[in-house]
Amino acid sequence: MDQLKPRPANSTPLTPLGFLERAATVYGDCPSIVYNTTTYTWSQTHRRCLQLASSLVSHGIKRGHVVSVLAPNVPAMYELHFAVPMAGAILNTINIRLDARTISVLLVHSESKLIFVDILSLPLILEAICLLPPNYTEHPLLVIITDDEVPSTPSSVTVDFRETYEGMVEKGDPRFDWVRPASEWDPIVLNYTSGTTSSPKGVVHCHRGIFIAATNSVLDWSLPNQPVFLWTLPMFHGNGWTYTWAMAAVGGINICVRKFDAPVIYGLIQRHGATHICGAPVVLNMLTNSPNSEEKPLKNPVHFLTAGSPPPAVVLSKAESLGFVVSHGYGLTETAGVVVSCAWKPGWNRLPATERARLKGRQGVKTVGLTQVDVVDPKTGVSVKRDGSSLGEIVLAGGSVMLGYLKDPVGTSRSMREDGWFYTGDVGVIHTDGYLEIKDRSKDVIISGGENLSSVEVEAMLYTNPAVDEAAVVARPDEFWGETPCAFVSLKNGLSRKPTEKEIMEFCRDRLPHYMVPKTVVLKDELPKTSTGKIQKFVLREIAKAMGSSRASRL
User: Fold this and answer.
1) CA–CA distance, 448 with 408 (Å, rounded to integer)
2) 15-53 b/e (C-beta count within 10 Å ≥ 16 → b)
3) Which domains does the chain have, with CATH numbers?
4) Paired strand residues for 464
5) Which helix or strand (DSSP H or E) is residue 265 part of?
6) Sign of CA dihedral 526, 530, 535, 540
7) Which runs of consecutive H residues, i.e. helices, occur in 111-154?
8) CA within 20 to 30 Å of 123's CA: 20, 100, 242, 524, which one?
9) What is the pLDDT of residues 34-70, one digit of tens each?
10) Which tens digits make up the pLDDT trace of 496-544?
11) Of the candidates 472, 477, 187, which has an alpha carbon nearest to the alpha carbon of residue 312?
């Protein structure tokens, strides 16, 4: 036994890029991508990715360079998940809902060398580039992604592009020997958690981690060969929870759609026989409330994986009556996808609907690809009691946990400690049956429509208003979005004219991405504080909770 050791033949770096090679061989003539009137096979997708990777290298992209993309769920966005790392580069997908100021900060922080930009996001990226610091000399090359569905160029834009996406594909070598990772620990993607402008949190994942996460995605959701996957989940959102690569592993059909629209989604489900969908609870809510849902139940069951805040019981019941089979999970950008899921026990099907919804609302147990999950006292690291009421911080350990935060060794060390755990910052309990349930968010993260937003950043913007004295932002329940930002604000004394709640919202709307803008503003003479002068957010959370759904108040 002592002479047995790792050798080149058994220690080839793990990478999800090999999934595409296999798909081209096994499913070569089968559809890989469907978008409007365009259909590619897996052999065509493999060839196009090789050609694009070849062109990237010819443009000077080297191992370790960051290549960004700003695009919705169009075929190019899917292909770039393979083509960019096949050139040895690191893929950085940018949230198209961010504002130009935030995007410019991310481009500087990532040192992006090249940006693929969708035609409709062209004005946004040009504005972001104009906001780059004067001393920033390495402006990235822009490559435009055109689309038959939209005008060739927005009328407000006059710019001469050296390259287009399809032009780069056509110029590339289909026999290109793609750049394999020197080590499975080589970075493959860079994802920003929330677009924080003061100190961006760039999550870096390696080839090994994404391989494990994608394989885990296939196993945990029990994906069959050649599922029909409808892309309602943005691919820029944690790389579509790694289902971009997972679909290649099982030869799935990727149904691409530019933006979410419930009637369109129902049409695509019927037309293509979609079998699997991912999305935030708000997506499920929109589907169940669409007039199309009243026409008739789905012809065949459609599996729907949701993560984030648990879907309300009424939404779950309605979805199941329509033919959706809902699964609930938990993951973070830092874990590359769902790592805890509510594994369903057959006996639970005999329970009343309200009890099934309660059980399905729990985050669940570790997936097969995760090594360990626990809830611990954050100070001592000791596990809390498994009684469903003892609170602690959720900690994780496994191969899909990130390498760390880009250019942030302090943040990396704070979350990935020497005790072997990744500290999520989420507060939860473990029930007597071993199932995990989130109870609070110690980082004050608000999940609105599937997007994580930092209350601290919204507060920082509120404080830039010269009339604001104090500000605190907490989550308010919302029947549609799950949660929305609720801002409690006290104004400075001696103002000749006090701004209204509406004016404060408009102030934020001009300076923040729209999903981060408070949907509720409450003006108070003074915010509640502790004896040491800290704002008591837990008091404000209770007030916001007692206010009920922000959506219901607008009806």
Assistant:
1) 26
2) bbbbbbbebbeebeeebbbbbeeeebbbbbbbbbbbbbb
3) 42-205 (3.40.50.12780), 260-441 (3.40.50.12780), 445-554 (3.30.300.30)
4) none
5) helix 262-272
6) negative
7) 122-130
8) 242
9) 999 999 999 999 999 999 999 999 999 999 999 999 9
10) 899 999 999 999 998 888 888 999 999 999 888 754 456 788 899 899 9
11) 477
What interhelical angle do 281-289 and 262-272 show, nearest 10? 90
Q: Which two tokens stand for residue 161?
A: 């592009």
* 3-state SS record for 36-98: CCEEEEHHHHHHHHHHHHHHHHHCCCCCCCEEEEECCECHHHHHHHHHHHHCCCEEEECCCCC
Residue 108: both structure tokens together: 């500087």
Single-letter residue type at 205: H
> For 264-300, b where at least 16 C-beta lie within 10 A, e where not — what string?
ebbebbeeeebbbbbbbbbbbbbbbebebbeeeeeee
Beta bridge partners of 254: 33, 229
Q: Contact at 8 Å (CB) between 113 and 61?
A: yes
Q: What is the DSSP letter of 391?
A: -
CB proximity list for 38: less than 8 A, separation 6 or greater: 75, 148
Residue in this structure with the two tokens 């007692």, named with its chain if needed: 546
